Amino acid sequence: MRNGHIVWLLGAVLALLTSCKKGYLDIVPDNVPTLDHAFANRLEAEKYLFTCYSYLPSEGDPDRNPAFSAGDEAWTYWPMKEDFFYLDPYNIARGNQNSANPLLNYWDGFDGKSLWQGIRTCNIFLENLDKVIDLQPYEKDRWIAEAKFLKAYFHWYLFRMYGPIPIVDKNLPITATPEEVRVFRQPVDSVVNYISALLDEAAAGENSGLPLRIASATSELGRITKVAALAIKARVLVTAASPLFNGNNDFAGMKNKNGQLLFNSKYDATKWERAKDACKKAIDLAHAAGLKLYTFNPSIIEVDHATQVEMNIRNSVCEKWNSELIWGLTTDAAPTYWLQTFACPQLDPNAFNINLKGKLAPPMKIAEMFYTKHGVPIDEDKNWDYANRFKLRNVTALDTGMQEGYKTVGLHFEREPRFYADIAFDGSTWFMKNGDYNIQSKLEQYSGKKQSRLFSITGYFTKKIVSWNLVFTKTSLQTESYPWPVMRLSDLYLLYAEALNESNSSGEALTYLNQIRERAGLESVQTSWSTYSKNPTKYTNVIGLRDIIRQERCIELAFEGSRFWDLRRWKTATQVLNTPIYGWDILQSTYENYNRRVFVYNMQFVGPRDYFWPIKEDNLQINPNLVQNPGW
């Protein structure tokens, strides 16, 4: 947010209803005093386009993206007096959201970014691009498509947070009357249709508009492609078809003050058909663009099979611009630097580095979420000792991902490759390009708690999001800050599998699930459940396969900002986010005492209130046509 006065979505609102100190044109890029100058030539107009991009939230930052630290996927010690930029997401996780001064308030402005202002900036760009006299037609078409995508994405981001929102397709003129600027929230279906149509416009044209793939890797990576536009459309439509928005009676009475209903509480099966078609179209275009599931190239460094599978998983996120990345976010100069340093623990007993925080700690329920080595849930595997999962065992040379001769609990034995790729724990190993490291995190050990900061509150660490290129000494730290994967192909496959299953095409859904499982070193769903599950026919019906798809999604996309939103759209957050956070007893120094499950925090998710953000109370006074989300 440029000045502290922008509390509503339109500059015209502020000019008429508040004491805004800056003028209508003060949203142009720095050092550009007028719109005429901003669109005087190609160079200045391109700067304005990049200003539109600059409003994208920093989704690769754990303090700026609620999906990292405002849910149950990664916990941290409390209170924090340093090692943070914003405490907003951590306070949301602890039930401290409020309507007087909402946390992570991207409606009015958070981290200097109001998404309504971003939308308004896109509109100004679209309204003025014709003024540029030295712009090639193909560039003009592409820039228009990019601005339309960004406008759609900002609406989508707000919709996901707040539910029904106003639609700002055009900026109101400064001469607009107070009645004109007191806009209403629009019904869910109208918002979805608007975003979807705008994304279609952005992706239109076979040989014009957005490129199929980025040609100039040195200067344009991170900009929008046709594949990205269609993939985000698929995500929007899957969300719209999901239980939060499709057949949800909790918001049946929510209406504008003019009586207009904002939620259609009647279930509509055609929404899943529409989502299915959107996913397939995006997948087909992704394949045409050469995208495929990433696999690690062993010629880079010689590794055994288990390590190769582990790096298939880790580098599908951390390898820059890899083969399955549909859209990587590069708005910030180092988009994932802080995420990696917050996640990585002390790895070397002889090289303590204060920049390695190791504080993003998965709770025990996340560790239990991953499958056994047989590819089924730990409480379903008839050959896995679920009852004794908290008993100590000795690690042998045959055990994967752990230090031979160490002791750890049965929960850590005979688990699927994604468990060892995603999570580290006391007694586990951590493979990096410059060598293998051992995690030893009991009290006073080098990876454990030695002071009031720089430790995991649960005893687990988020290995998956740390690049294997990170290197450090006692006095230096270097890491490759990869672009944050807003969307990758495996995510799109999982969205498609979900839409297929909900559209009574379960057999085809298995095809896409199995491709992801194969890359992760697992057998097919059919083989795993038929052979090892206590419920061998679970995958043969829609309800059973729905449960499998949801768990597969939570595993495959762990620590990528997906679970937070998935639990909401599935409308399961009321159950899942009201279960306690548990970890290991990190204040103990012996095997027996450390490996005891201890209570960390009792999360509280109040439904239906917490499914959406509150609108700041001041906005309801400025615009009396706005209605608050239920419960706030």
UniProtKB/TrEMBL annotation:
Show where the SusD-like N-terminal domain sits: 101-236
Task: Tell me which PROSITE patterns the record gives.
Answer: PROKAR_LIPOPROTEIN (PS51257)
UniProt xrefs under InterPro entries: SusD-like_N, SusD_RagB_dom, TPR-like_helical_dom_sf
Q: Which domain of life is it from?
A: Bacteria
Parts forming coiled coils: none
Q: Which UniProt keywords apply?
A: Cell outer membrane, Membrane, Signal
Leader sequence residues: none
The answer, when asked if Membrane is one of the entry's keywords, is yes
Provide GO CC annotations from the record.
Answer: cell outer membrane
CDD domains the UniProt entry points to: SusD
Q: Which Pfam families does the entry mention?
A: SusD-like_3, SusD_RagB
Residues annotated as domain RagB/SusD = 324-632
Q: Where in the cell is it found?
A: Cell outer membrane
Q: What's this protein's family per the entry? A: Belongs to the SusD family.
Q: Quote the protein name from its UniProt record.
A: RagB/SusD family nutrient uptake outer membrane protein
Q: What is the lineage of its organism?
A: Bacteria, Pseudomonadati, Bacteroidota, Chitinophagia, Chitinophagales
